[in-house]
Amino acid sequence: MERYDEGMPFLLKYENVAWYQDGTVRILDRRVYPREVIFVECKSYKDVVKAIQDMVTQSAGPYTALGMGMALACYESRSLYKKERKNFIEKASIELGNARITTKERYSKITTRCYKIAVDAIDNDKDPVKLIMEDNIKSINRRYKTMIEVGKNLIDLIPENSSILTQCYGETIIGALISLLKKSNKKIKIYCAETRPFLQGARLTASCFSEEGFDTTILTDNMIAYAMENKLIDIFTSAADCITEDGGVVNKIGTLQIAQLAKLYDVKYFVTGIPDKGMKKLDDVKIEMKDPEEVLICNGIKHAGNKVKAIYPSFDKTPSNLVDKIVTDVGAYNPKDLCKYFENKGEINFY
Amino acid sequence: MERYDEGMPFLLKYENVAWYQDGTVRILDRRVYPREVIFVECKSYKDVVKAIQDMVTQSAGPYTALGMGMALACYESRSLYKKERKNFIEKASIELGNARITTKERYSKITTRCYKIAVDAIDNDKDPVKLIMEDNIKSINRRYKTMIEVGKNLIDLIPENSSILTQCYGETIIGALISLLKKSNKKIKIYCAETRPFLQGARLTASCFSEEGFDTTILTDNMIAYAMENKLIDIFTSAADCITEDGGVVNKIGTLQIAQLAKLYDVKYFVTGIPDKGMKKLDDVKIEMKDPEEVLICNGIKHAGNKVKAIYPSFDKTPSNLVDKIVTDVGAYNPKDLCKYFENKGEINFY
Questions:
Q1: Given CB atoms, is A307 within the 8 Å cutoff of chain B?
Q2: Sequence-ordered strand ranges (E) for chain A
Q3: Distance between CA B185 and CA B158 in Å, rounded?
Q4: Contact B216 A308 (CB under 8 A)
Q5: How close A258 gets to chain B, by Cα (Å)?
Q6: B305 at the A interface (CB within 8 A)?
Q7: B257 CB near a chain A CB, below 8 Å?
Q8: What NCBIfam families does its record include (chains A, B) (predicted)?
């Protein structure tokens, strides 16, 4: 089958995100990459749920891991009678779909589709694992292909010799951007906000760009105003974990304050992604609070005292007035005009 | 001799900052506290210069370490003839005074005074080590006593049941604030920005407050807007590495963007410290750039790839319009009225 990861960095190769084979889902442990290159091995779909909750993979990684987890659920249930097997797989689709609350709408699209494929396969005495894996590859291809379209629209907004600030690890759009920039020969300098607590910007985004030969500089999350004041940054761009119909953006904690600083320093903020139909208002999005212990730790070492607390909101909400363009697969929209996206697109089949 | 560190946390005890004894200066290694409690042992004043440059101690720690380093320089030169000995100690005063460029004005005040004491002692056949140590304790007492006055003026600005956000580790003012808050019985909740790259907020400030029983919560540096938007923070306060006569503030990298967010979210920003007479304008301050490698590391572990760069400005500059009050030993001033401080104070003898 055709694949869209050619010419992309290590992290974007399909098998290096998450992959099902012979009763095991292997997920690259993004919590330690590039310091260590290790894969977490999941022997049950519940292991996959836990890996997603534990941030073994993040950004678009879970989209791939979820499909692989559904293939694994079919494998796990191979000895059950049809009815019990379908129940087991349905349960898996619900648990995987709800692994993280803020993104459960997107997750559930994937797991529900896989469940339907499984039911159809079981009813027709076909192998659900095989059919789900075929769908998984189609789904990954579709996302990569779509994000290449998004990347093309983003590149159109980036002048020659710009400096771009990224936040966290936008995964597919990072891969798309790299492969398109390489083809375009546009000279671009990359600044990556390191993105505590898990440092995905410093470890993942910076690795992708630097591996592919880009001039790549890390900023700690508290250097953003300094960098903007000193004219190091021309454009801020991030992906989004949710783009609401009212033009709001839910993304990795820290995005909101970078967007606010960008506004203050006249730096453009371009959000990339596929808007979430049905998510009407930014206000309605619930922010997932994760284990605060992660904030007291860095690189696996606890540096804070024992009596100290922390909070760990995974995401924050950036209102539409701080966003210059929402860059989609069919064009770049002013956030206030996002309704046009849905008019233009009709039925969206992305995940 | 009377001392002002009673009732203060571990980090504020004089001997736990930096101390000279028997040919050695011991400096608490703040880069790893509280995870490890170790002291760097300096056998020469050059070791002290290096320790300050390597951030073994920071904030007000170097003020103490510099005086101790000068005592050590006197010890090191004990076998030299008077003239050579004075030259050696003068050289030490210059090198120690210039250990960090942004704060060299303050540093040089201490080392020059120690040098004069040493010359006087040598000319009068007295022991310069002993006299410098006496001056060191006087100087530390003076700073602690002065910062207790600053603390009193700060507390007057803090309503009951406030939540206070700190940045980095303000050292003496943190000790003063803690001891005064304990006496006042004012209920205060503390949020500490973790302050990458060295996490002084998470490790040092949070340890001081939590050790003394305060409700203490760490925020990663990218959670500030989230915390302010969710009304977790009432007041932002920081110390300053330099307060210029035009009301500008030079402080740990990250202060500028917190001050900007505070302005956006109507959170008051109170700067504590002794304004720097002679430092006319914020624009004239030179920001020290440190080894970028520190940004690619956290808790001693390198997490970034090998082809990735970084920048590491130690400080940033917050203009007076983002500061609500500059809180000094003789009162809280609007930044634009800072000239009144110098009129009120006359000759300043702080360091």
A1: yes
A2: 18-21, 24-28, 39-42, 162-166, 188-193, 215-219, 235-238, 242-243, 249-252, 268-272, 297-298, 301-302, 309-310, 315-318, 325-328, 331-333
A3: 12
A4: yes
A5: 8
A6: yes
A7: yes
A8: PRK05720.1
pTM for the whole structure: 0.93
Using CB atoms within 10 A of its CB, is residue A302 exposed (0-12), middle (13-18) or buried (19+)? Answer: middle
Catalytic position from the list B135, B234, B241, B329: B241
pLDDT band at B350 (very low <50, low <70, confident <90, very high): confident
CA–CA dist A345, A21 (Å, integer): 35
* Measured distance CA(A246)–CA(A103) in Å, rounded: 17
Distance, in Å, from the CA atom of A291 to the CA atom of B334, rounded to the nearest integer, reads 41
Alpha helices in B221-350 (DSSP H): 224-229, 255-264, 339-345
| Averaged pLDDT for residues B120-129 | 98
Q: Tell me whether residues A194 and B196 touch, CB distance under 8 A.
A: yes
The letter for the amino acid at A28 is L
Contact assignment for A253 to B222 by CB distance below 8 Å: yes
- The CA distance from B205 to B111, in Å, is 27
The region, left, alpha or beta by phi > 0 then psi within -120 to 50, assigned to residue A55 is left
Domains of chain A and CATH, by start: 10-144 (1.20.120.420), 157-345 (3.40.50.10470)
Give the model confidence (pLDDT) of B278-333 as tens digits: 999 999 999 999 999 999 999 999 999 999 999 999 999 999 999 999 999 999 99
Cβ distance B310 to A229 less than 8 Å, yes or no, reads: no
* Secondary element (H or E) of residue A211: helix A206-211
Cα–Cα dist B330/B346, whole Å: 11
Residue B146 to residue B275: CA distance in whole angstroms: 12
Strand partners, A25: A20, A42
